[in-house]
Design a protein that fits this description.
The chain is mostly beta strands and 94 residues long. The chain has one helix and six strands; from the N terminus they run αββββββ. A six-stranded antiparallel barrel has the order 1-2-3-6-5-4. It starts with a helix and ends in a 14-residue tail after the last strand.
Length: 94
């Protein structure tokens, strides 16, 4: 039986940037596959430590808030989630 999720994942191999709250700057990654619900991301091992982070394909003009659902060495699978409200948080580029 074919897993339904496999039908919606699109392989893209596209460069993107990650931002982790509490860590300055943007960090490069490669998005290996993408769906409406989430993505598979590869990055240097020391970047794949947070449970949540921002992902951007356009230099943070737009972002996707990600929550890690699995990890495997230099890769992780994420689901896209609504950004949680945080008192006093005005964005990392302000």
């Amino acid at each position: 039986m074919l897993e339904p999720r496999a039908l919606t994942d699109i392989p893209i191999d596209r460069l993107a940037l990650l931002h982790f709250q509490g860590l300055a700057g943007a960090h490069p990654c490669v998005v290996k596959s993408l769906s409406a619900e989430g993505a598979c991301i590869e990055a240097a091992q020391y970047y794949i430590f947070a449970d949540e982070f921002e992902l951007s394909f356009d230099g943070f003009k737009t972002t996707l808030w990600c929550q890690v659902v699995w990890r495997n060495r230099h890769a992780c699978g994420v689901k896209f989630v609504a950004r949680r409200a945080e008192a006093g948080f005005s964005g990392w580029m302000s």
